[in-house]
Amino acid sequence: MDPEEQELTEGQKKEAIKREMLRKSLDRCKVLNPLDEPYTVYWDKFPHLVLAHGEGVFPRYIAQKYVKEMCDKILTFRSDDEVRRENERRQKKGVALMDKHTEQPAFESKFAINQPELRKPVIEILWGGVIEEYGRNLPLESEQAMAASSDADLLAEIESSREKPIAEEVTVEE
Question: Measuring CA to CA, which residue among 142, 126, 137, 130 is closest to residue 169?
Fold first, then answer.
């Protein structure tokens, strides 16, 4: 019997999935920093810096951590700014500021950082794509997207929407 035709056991399937997850976590990915200040993401107490209006290339696991932290930061700043604007608008009309325990949480819920429809546009700005797939020289596979609910799902959706890896777009001029 040919080894390729043999059915994989449940343990072999799980091991193959684990190996693929490890391989994929080591892909080299580009991330962007749209802010006016540099941002440092820490992994095992080691700093990984992305300069202001710059970009960085990191293994996927660090890039995903950066995207999550930076997305949270941007959306939190946006929410705080909306609260500040609403309070200024109320002051101009002569109305009392929002109560911090009742009105403000209800107002802030419109800008909650856990909403995929708010996170996706920010993640698209932050994610520069896969530069190099670790361990294989094949083009990226596109997968049927399900409803994205986590940052990893949103990143996978953004990656699959791009036609080719960024490494193929870059040409070296001599």
Answer: 130
- pTM over 0.85? The answer is no
C-beta of residue 40 within 8 angstroms of C-beta of residue 56 = no
Taking the C-alpha atoms of residue 120 and residue 113, their distance in angstroms, rounded to an integer, is 11
Is residue 133 within 8 A of residue 27, CB to CB? The reply is yes
Distance set, CA 125 to CA 54, 60, 70, 122, 158 (Å): 12, 16, 11, 5, 10
Query: What whole-number distance in Å separates Cα of residue 31 and Cα of residue 41?
Result: 12
> How is 36-89 classified by DSSP, letter by letter?
SS-EEEEETTEEEEE-TT-EEEEEHHHHHHHHHHHHHHHHHHHHHHHHHHHHHH
Q: What is the pLDDT of residues 135-168, one digit of tens each?
A: 766 555 544 445 556 787 788 788 888 766 565 5
Name the DSSP class of 135: T
Instruction: Tell me how far the alpha carbon of residue 79 is from its chain's centroid.
Output: 19
Question: Beta partners for 47?
Answer: 42
pLDDT tens digits, one per residue of 73-86: 999 999 999 999 99
Helix (H, G, I), strand (E, B) or coil at 26: coil
Q: Do 72 and 52 form a contact (C-beta atoms < 8 A)?
A: no
